[in-house]
Amino acid sequence: MSVSSGAIDHKFFVVHLDAERFYHAWLKASPAITRRHGSDCICRSQMPFDYKYKWAVDGFSHGINNPVPLAEAGAHVDTSGRLHLDFTNGVTRTFWLLANRCPAFPVEVYGADSASLLHHVAGIGPEPQSLAEVFSNAQPYFL
């Protein structure tokens, strides 16, 4: 997986997720009956039936020669104290990773607070790093 530098690298963070912890938190934060939003989680057994799943299969098939971009995720707590896990982009990529039992994976998150919360809920390894930190040594960042 890969991430690239942009104009506001100090506001974007990489968060490494424990896949099982993330899956269970995302499933718990999503509606139990029907999927209302495109960023809601579904049961792992249903993920390969997502209408875009075949594109994720193709995307991951290229490996390091053409790495798949990190999904863009986030976390926040609403005024009632309920946790929300959201995606701007990359739900189907995340379905593919979870359906294939990937043990851990990184995501890109906008905002330090969201990155810290997501790391607290399902993070693994080091604290979130801003893209400015990731790219400060001018090395490509492939995961």
Would you spell out the secondary-structure blueprint of this structure?
Elements: E1 12-18, H1 19-29, H2 53-61, E2 71-77, E3 83-89, H3 91-99, E4 104-110, H4 112-122, E5 129-130, H5 131-134
Parallel strand pairs: 2-4
Antiparallel strand pairs: 1-4, 1-5, 2-3
Helix pairs in contact: 2-3
Q: What labels would you give this structure?
A:
143 residues; alpha+beta; 5-stranded mixed beta sheet; 5 helices; 5 strands; 21% strand
Tell me what you see in this structure.
The protein is 31% helix and 21% strand. The protein is of the alpha+beta class. The radius of gyration is 15 Å and the shape is globular.
What is the structure about, briefly put?
With 143 residues, the protein is α+β, with helices and mostly antiparallel strands.
Structural class designation: alpha+beta
Order of neighbouring strands in the sheet with most strands: 3-2-4-1-5
Residue fraction in strands: 15-25%
Rounded radius of gyration (Å): 15 Å
**Average pLDDT across residues?**
92
Q: Biggest sheet: strands, sense, closure?
A: 5 strands, mixed
The total strand number stands at 5
Helix content: 25-40%
Order of helices and strands: EHHEEHEHEH
The count of domains is 1
Q: Regions with pLDDT < 50 over 5+ consecutive residues?
A: none
User: How far apart, in Å, are the first and last alpha carbons?
Assistant: 5 Å
General form: globular
Helical stretch tally: 5
